[in-house]
UniProtKB/TrEMBL annotation:
Residues 86-250 form the DUF4130 domain. InterPro entries: DNA_repair_put, DUF4130. It comes from the Bacteria. This is DUF4130 domain-containing protein.
Length: 259
């Protein structure tokens, strides 16, 4: 068995797909993994590190779009954002089936290779929807709105377009503190992604969160609309999981480590 170890990114995974396919070793004799997926190596396996290559990525994308469908391309892109540790190999197996069946592959949910991709995409869509609902902005500077999130999946690229459409005249940042990156939007311009792995940035953001005057207003609103006789914490956790509350000013940040 030959294992291709890819960078945990869309480009890294598609480069791995290209290298595994072009190796001509047979699909049953190769496997894709994302870097850091397993802490120990398996016996009797050859490990090959995959270096992202833009030309190879473009070839795979072009083949998927022309020989399978645009829907298949969108599905594998979204699946690459999943936290599923086996996503690289799932994408590879999906594409093997896709090149065999063509455009109808995305409707063939009875196939395990297709259902695995569908399940990851559904999980991503659900989390992106909840993040959009529960995301809160605070005012860091006079003209800058900032929000922190900590999603399980890499949904930042899925939720940023929503706020770019709803808040085109505002300067805002949505910071994913787990992946140390942010979506930045300048008023009247398109949004873009940027790595923000900086302790100084983290400290400034946390200080702004603690000092924000709207935090107390959110708490006051929550208290004012609460009906004591209808308090149901179990139902509340169902509709608003604890892991989101660490990033919502109307709740105490002491809930941050709860799941």
């Amino acid at each position: 068995m030959t294992v291709y170890t890819c960078k945990d990114s869309f480009e890294g995974i598609l480069t791995g797909v290209y290298d595994a396919w072009m190796s001509r070793k047979g699909h049953s004799n190769v496997r894709l993994e994302t870097a850091g997926q397993y802490s120990t190596m398996e016996l009797f396996c050859d490990y090959i590190d995959v270096i992202p290559d833009e030309e190879k990525v473009e070839k795979v994308i072009r083949s998927v779009r022309t020989r399978i469908s645009e829907a298949a391309y969108e599905a594998i892109y979204k699946a690459s954002l999943s936290r599923n540790g086996e996503k690289a190999d799932h994408i590879y197996r999906f594409l093997i089936r896709g090149f065999q069946k063509g455009a109808g592959i995305t409707q063939s949910l009875q196939l395990p290779e297709v259902f695995q991709i569908f399940d990851m995409c559904r999980n991503l869509d659900n989390e992106a929807h909840l993040e959009t609902e529960f995301l809160r902005f605070i005012q860091m500077d006079e003209d800058m709105l900032v929000s922190r999130i900590g999603p399980k999946n890499d949904v930042l690229v899925l939720i940023a377009p929503h706020f770019a459409d709803r808040m085109p005249a505002e300067n805002w940042i949505i910071y994913d503190e787990k992946r140390k990156k942010a979506a930045l939007h300048q008023a009247g311009r398109p949004w873009f992604l940027m790595d923000l792995d900086s302790r100084e940035w983290e400290e400034k953001l946390h200080k702004a969160t603690e000092d924000d005057e709207y935090r107390e207003l959110w708490k006051a609103l929550r208290r004012s609309i609460t009906i004591k006789e209808r308090w149901n914490p179990v139902c509340q956790r169902t509709h608003m999981p604890l892991r989101y509350r660490a990033y919502m000013p109307e709740f105490d940040h002491g809930l941050k480590d709860q799941r």
